[in-house]
Amino acid sequence: MSDNRGFKTVSDGPQRPPLCSDQPSSRATCRQLTRRTLLTLAIGTACLGVVGLVFGLVLWPQLDAAYHWREAQRAAEAGRFLDAREHLRRCLEVWPTSGETHFLMARVCRRGGDYAEARQHLTLARQHHWPGPAVDLELLLLDVQVNGARGPDAVTLQHFVLSNKHPDEKLILEALVKGYIHNFYLREADYWLNYWVETHPDDWFAYYWRGQLRERFGKLEEACGDYREALRLSPGQLDAALRLAQVLQQKGIDLAEAKQLFELYLQKYPTDGPALLGLARCHRGLGDHAAARSVLERITSDHPSYGKALLVRALLECDLENYAEALSHLRQAEQLNPNEPDIVHQLAEVLHKLGRSEEARPYAERHKQLEAALRELGEITRSLLGSPADVEKRYRAGAILLRVGEEDGIRWLLTVLRENPNHRPTHEALADFYSKSSVPEHRHLAELHRRRVQELDETRQPGTAQAPAP
Predict the structure, then answer these.
(1) Is residue 377 part of a domain?
(2) Alpha carbons 320 and 360: distance in angstroms, whole number
(3) Which domain CATH number covers 286?
(4) Domain boundary at 257, 272, 299, which?
(5) 147 within 8 A of 418, measured Cβ to Cβ
(6) Cβ contacts of 310 within 8 Å, gap of 6 or more
């Protein structure tokens, strides 16, 4: 007889305590543990949800805005002002009361040529307590970029650049140069561009703008050198690549390189008219007519470059001696750009090839007149280097450009009024131009200039000479 008192019986297998026994107290304990576990999980899930909500509503917009802020600065440094504006718009959705963001937006708009929006954001920057001196300087740069530095403005900026070594010196030089070029004060632009290159030889923007000025002077080889230097300093600079491609194509050499540069630019801006035209001309110069036609098909009839695209189409047909087809394209081009010298010249050539010499003769005569006007324009431009404030020469340049269908003539005429607000022939020419325009807003401008002509006629003293009509 065995005695098991005080000892546990050894079972045949391993013993596992039951999660819940069949006893009522054990089942209650189990339910309590289950409730606690579920409650803990619920609380944890709720905490994660709150954290996610806070991140989504508060932290993520801030992080996203900070990202766009950095990208806006990079885009501005690279001269991609439209891209910079898009990034800053995203910032302002999150930081609508940030004076600094409005200030940077104003600067980017001004550098990109949108002066009205620049002024709006400068007003907002001041309202949101961005430092007044910074806003005042930016307003000065805006006015200089629009009108060119004249009088006290020129003295102020020259003092900033030459005496103070201002921290924004490069931005000041940029505004000076743009203002001078925009208003055709080319001698001043040339001086400050050379100063900019000498004092900041690592700034690609200085070479980019000097290249444009050298293009205006017809110094294409030197312009190529400047654009190449801009690309060396900023390899991804697409605007400099486009400019270099256009000069190479215009010179008619290195067409293969020009073609590659046009294609590079079009990867980013696939609908850009001037780049598409340049690429088509390169294909034609390289003998690939099919590729040229394919590129021209990407320029639609509502595109501003369509008239010149029709001219290139006509040249392609002329290469194949399909003169009747070429004439059809040229007639359409003439309707869009009746005073484009190349179109007029090609019409004379094609009509002559078709044996229609009588029809060709007026076009040949008109082409001679247009070429003479453009030669005169070149002489005027060169003579203005020595007398930039000569209003009669500026008026003549504007009148010539309007006669050949170039709206740059308007900018020339507006510079006349900055030098002499009472120049009657300029008001008369502007009134005539705006009255013929299809833009609704131009009707008001036409009336303003007509009224000014009447006022000047009423106040003009007897015997006062007037400038001859163009």
Answers:
(1) no
(2) 20
(3) 1.25.40.10
(4) 299
(5) yes
(6) 329, 330, 332, 333, 336
Amino acid identity, residue 232? R
* pLDDT tens profile 120-144: 999 999 999 999 999 999 999 999 9
Determine the distance from the C-alpha atom of residue 306 to the mean position of all C-alpha atoms in its chain, rounded to a whole number.
20
**What is the distance between the terminal CA atoms of the chain, rounded to a whole angstrom?**
141
Q: How many domains does the chain have?
A: 2
d(CA 432, CA 411): 15
- Given 299, 322, 337, the domain boundary residue is 299
Helix ranges (H only) for 55-151 are 60-77, 81-94, 99-112, 115-127, 132-147
- For 349, residues 6+ apart whose C-beta sits below 8 A from its C-beta are 318, 360
Distance separating alpha carbons of residues 401 and 413, to the nearest angstrom = 10
Note the pLDDT of residue 49. Answer: 57
Q: Model pTM?
A: 0.80
Token look-up 């439209």 returns: 82
Q: Is residue 227 part of a domain?
A: yes
The boundaries of the domain holding residue 208 are: 203-299
Structure tokens at 343: 């179109």
Q: Sign of dihedral through CA atoms 68, 71, 75, 76?
A: positive
The tokens of 255 are what? 């067409």
Nearest to 413 by CA among 405, 268, 401, 404: 401
